[in-house]
Structure formats: C-alpha cells, structure tokens
Amino acid sequence: MLKRLVLTFFGLFGALLAQQNYDLVVYGGTAGGVMTAIAGARHGLKTVLLEPGRHVGGMATGGLSRTDTGTREVIGGLALEFYYRTGMRYDMHRYKNPVAWFYEPKVGEAVMVDMLTEAGVTVLYNHRLREETGVVKQGLRVTEIATENGERFAGKIFADCTYEGDLMAQAKVSYTVGREGSAQYGESLAGVRDRTPKHQFLFDVPARDERGNLYPEISPNKPGKSGEPDKGVQAYNFRIIATDVAHNRIPWPKPAGYDPRRYELLARYLDAFVKHNKRAPVFHELTLIARIPNGKADFNNQGPFSTDFIGKNWDYPEAGYATRERIWKEHINYIQGFYYFLANDPRVPKSLQTEVNQWGLPKDEYLDTNHWPHQLYVREARRMVGEFVASQKDLQTDLTKPDVIGMGSYNSDSHNIQRFENARGMAENEGDMQVPVKPYQIPFRVVLPKRAEAANLLVPVPFSASHVAFSSMRMEPQWMIIGHASGVAAALAIRNNTSVQDVNIAELQKILKSEGAVFDFVPTPQQDALRIIHNKMRPKGVSLFNWEY
Question: Which pTM was predicted?
Fold first, then answer.
C-alpha cells in the first residue's frame, strides 16, 4: 500500500513538473505568432512561443522577401518596427529611407530573433502540437496544450498563430475550408470564378497529347458553375530565394525521380508562346523575379504554368501530419523539377535556358535545408468562423470599423485553384483573383471565436474571414498587425480578468495607437502625385499587380 502511494505521489509530481505554466501560450512561430508573443511579453506576460519547426517568421523569413505591402503607409506598430529594424541592418538611412521592405531571409529571421529575445519570450523549437489529443479544454477555457515530445503547457490565454489552424480545430472552434458561394455573404467574387486573364493561358495550348491522354498537371475534374462553393484551396508553392552572383550560386537541383515528361504541358506552352509572340519568353514571364539585397531575388509564381502546384493541396488543411509531409515533399519535387526542366531540357528556347542558368540557389541561405526555403507557402488553409466574418464588403464598401486594430490594403489576391480541360479541349486555369481594394480597417472581432466556443483563445492567423476577404487580409504585414493587437489584448484580458470577447476596445486601441498602429489613411498630395508618375512609367502591358507602388 505504501509503495503504491509513493508511486502515485511521484507520478503526480512528475506530471506537475512536465507541465509548464505561462500567462500567454502562442502556438506557431509565423510572423503573426512572433508579434503576438512579443506584444504580450512587452506588456508583462510570461510568454512562450511554441514553433513546430526550427525557424521563426513563417513566410516572412521563409522566402517571401518581396513584402506584399499594398499601400505602405497603412503598415504600423510592430510590423513597421520589424521592417524599420531590418532597414537598420542594411543602413537604409543612407538613402533617406529607413525601412527595408525587401530583405534577405537570414536577415529578417535574425531581426525577429532579436526582438523575441529583447522582449523576454521563451522560444521553443520542434514543439509540434500532439495530433488529435493535444488540447485540453474545461468548459469554454483551453487549460493546456501538449506537444509531441511529451511537454505540456498551461496558460491563461492561448493564441493559434499557425497557418493551418490546428490548435483552433482541436479546441472545437468553428472553421471552414475552401470557397464560399456567392450567396453566402453576398460576394460577387466568391465561389468558382469565370475565366480570368491573369496567370492564364492567353493562347491555345491543347490539354491532351496525340494519343488523347491528358497532359500531367491537368485535372480530369471540371470546375463547378460560376459562383458555386467548393472545397478548393488556392495553390501553394515555395518562394525561392535565388542568386545570380556566381561565387554564391548553386546550380538548380535535380529532384529525386525527375521525369521531364511531367512538364510536357510546359514544353507545349513554351512552343505555343514562341509561335504566338514571335519570340522566346524571358525568365520573368515564367517566374516573378523581385530583387532583394546582395545579388539575390525572391522568385514567385508567374504565368499559367509556373511554381504554383495547382490543385495538389486540397487535402492539406485538414490532413494529418504524415499526409501534410507527403504534400510538402511533393511541392518540393514539383518546383525543383520545374526549374531543372527550364535549366536543362533541350525543348526550352536557348535564350531562356541561358538566362535560367545565370541563377541558382544561394549558398548563404537556408543552411539546414539544403538552401531550399524552410516554409511551404500555405496561402490559406482552415479559416475560423467567428461571430463576425470579414467578407468582400469589408474590403470595398464598409471600410471603417468601431473595433479597428490596424489596416489592410493589398489586392484581393487568390492564386489559381485548379487546372482543367475546357470545352474546346484546351488547358485552362481557374480561381485566380486580383481585384484592387481601398485601404480598409481590420476589426478586432476577426480573431475572436464565438462566445459559446472559447473564452481564452485568440486566432490571429487563421482568422475569421471569407475566402475573398482572407485573400487580401492574409498578407504578412497584416498578420503582424493582427498579432500585435492580439498580444496586447491577451494582456488586457488577464489584467482585467475578462474573456477575450470582453476586452475593452477603447483601452486596446489607445495602447495600439501609442505603439505606432495606423487606423486611418489619408493620402497626401505628394503620395498621389508619386503614384501617378510611377504608374505612367509602368511598362506597357505590365499589370499594376506586378508593378507595385
């Protein structure tokens, strides 16, 4: 009996030791997660940031170095501080422009690590939420989360700052995946899209080979009717950091099991391009090249067949870890093969191939992942359905909010969702959306679960928005802005002993304003004049999306 009591005591003691107690537990080291943690810690909270992988910053340090700013003047608070600190690393003051919107990933990550360290945030890497059973909840309160290594973290407030929304989902908070139909929120841009001109086959490229077989990378399925809902997810890719500096350049890697036949549609597209335009394409017409410091560039999707792995990510948002890992590796294989094909296949026009081979992976980036970005660009996965769901009108007509915490201004920007054979037997992409918006206010309500579902959970990254609204609000500066507000809100909820839904909005706004948040945008005459001049200088045929002021 005594032996049993001793074992029970030590078992309970061991369990208590395994549990770590914090005021604020942030799960997910994305840029939004980093700023949530920093803001909470700066306001006195004992804060831990749990990152499933080995790096912080998500896409902001994982390849997206050409920051999607939109109207830059609406970016304030901790987001602006990050870009300002990054500018200091490059001594941007020399040019009377202290902010660096474009930067090297290793520099951006170093800045974020410094900010976390200065704030006193405990950062724990390789701490992935235990699958399916990682969240403990009592009533409306999350009490602790457990990671795969057996550690447990108790907290007063929790924040889901993952792109995937795993904590939110395990906490039984309502969410959705895919596209709403036009009728659900009265959105003209919702659901399946009509034929769109961007990143589209602008001249005929047959979908089948001479034997009548669909080319690889074309789905046998057809899209629904225009405006209908579906479970489609906008394409993911890797934002490649490349360099054309010879001494720092590694040739494009050949992926395992490479088969050039996989890129037959690309070969046919290149052939059709030459016939239609009477010239060979340049590299920028196949991958968006945005220069960043020290001879490097951020490479993104560009055109109808590029780095977006269209239609191959639909299962990712709700998949288990093993399936996600498989999808992740499939994206690496596809994109490495894309660049390797362009660099080596004899069917690629010689001038294009020469240009492609002037680039390669930089030796001084991503040293622990073979110089390949450590973050898959998960543009959209689960999205919370809170009591308030931001929708198209909140970007276009209902621009002001009583609970404003920051601003957004980037296009409604969804990448293609599927590639199919159209009625004429030609390849066609579907899902692209590039629709300008006016600078709009972001409401605090987008991070709040329904009152009946969770009282101490904030959701700054997979927040409550329709597919249309999310496609604008999902930009990294906005995630940082929302994270900043969430960290401050966590401190207020704890200090005033309230649920997250009952945080005093006036107090929250006062603090955010004192910390540089921007709630209003009024263009100055010079800003308007610069925009006019800039757009007049825009090359003929280049969209505003690719010629951003």
Answer: 0.94
**Burial level of 56, CB count in 10 A (0-12/13-18/19+)?**
buried
Let me know: does 154 contact 137? Beta carbons within 8 Å.
Answer: no
Q: Encode pLDDT of 214-245 as tens digits.
A: 999 999 999 999 999 999 999 999 999 999 99
Residues 124 and 50 sit within 8 Å (Cβ to Cβ)? yes
Helix axes 476-496, 505-514, angle to 10 degrees: 130
- Give the C-alpha separation, 358 to 151, whole Å: 47
For residues 432 and 198, is the Cβ–Cβ distance under 8 A?
Answer: yes
pLDDT at 182: 98
Q: Under the phi-then-psi rule, with left for phi > 0, alpha for psi from -120 to 50, and beta for the rest, what region is 216? A: beta
Residue 280, token pair as written in the block? 């060979």
Angle, helices 105-119 vs 31-42, to 10°: value is 20
- Report long-range pairs for 365-372 (Cβ below 8 Å, ≥24 apart): 365/104, 365/105, 365/106, 365/241, 365/296, 366/105, 366/241, 368/54, 370/253, 371/250, 372/238, 372/240, 372/253, 372/332, 372/336
Percent of the chain predicted with pLDDT > 70: 95
In order of 83, 397, 439, 476, the CA distances from 521 in angstroms are 19, 15, 7, 19
Sign of CA dihedral 79, 84, 88, 92: positive
User: How far from chain centre, in Å, is Cα 468?
Assistant: 15
- Distance separating alpha carbons of residues 409 and 75, to the nearest angstrom: 9
CA 84 to chain centroid: 21
Predicted confidence (pLDDT) per residue in 323-365, tens digit: 999 999 999 999 999 999 999 999 999 999 999 999 999 999 9
Look-up of token digits 């945080």: 503
CA angle 105, 328, 266 (to 5 degrees): 90
